[in-house]
Amino acid sequence: MAKFKFRLATLLRLRNAARDERRGQLAEAYRADEIIHQKHRQLAEELAAIQKQQREACGPGPVNVDRLLSDQRYAFLLAAQQGHTERQRLLLAAEIERRRQLLMEANREVRVLEKLEQRQRERHQEEENRLDIRELDEIAHRRAAPQEAP
After folding, report:
1. Distance CA 67, CA 73 (A)
2. What's the CA gap between 55 and 112, in Å, rounded?
3. Is residue 98 one of the residues assigned to a domain?
4. Cα–Cα distance, 103 to 98 (Å, whole number)
5. Which residue in 14, 65, 90, 119 has a CA-CA distance of 20 to 30 Å to 108?
């Protein structure tokens, strides 16, 4: 019985490797998004703390105007950085979607080859079964032929 050999096995291995690479790229983009999201949260917390500090500084008693101006400039800086992280996340969302599409395409290419391999494997098995049956029929015919001769 001949062993099944998929002629496109090398291509299947290459497509699997490409799919794995696409998975890694998508995971990398998700990690980058998480880092940017954490930075955005950190900036929001820092901005909230500065705003609270400004409200408390405007309360009863002496007011340090220089401190308020300094805090206000810092708050503007934090708000600008927050806007920058929001824009980065929007760009990254588009990149994540692009990488997700590439991964879906790579998955489809692998599935196509896997289905082809499965169909060829089944055809090979059917052919082997057919040859086995023909061989058994010949053996049975040869055994029956001498008994019919006398």
Report:
1. 10
2. 63
3. yes
4. 9
5. 90
> Tokens 């800086």 identify what position?
77
Mean per-residue pLDDT, 97-105: 98
Instruction: Give the C-alpha separation, 104 to 96, whole Å.
Output: 12
Q: What is the CATH number of the domain that holds 119?
A: 1.10.287
The pTM for the full model equals 0.75
149: confidence class by pLDDT, cuts 50, 70, 90: low
Q: How far apart are CA 5 and CA 12, in angstroms?
A: 13
- Containing structural domain, residue 97: 9-145
In a domain, residue 127? The reply is: yes
**Is residue 75 in some structural domain?**
yes
pLDDT one-digit tens code per residue, 20-71: 999 999 999 999 999 999 999 999 999 999 999 888 888 787 878 888 899 9
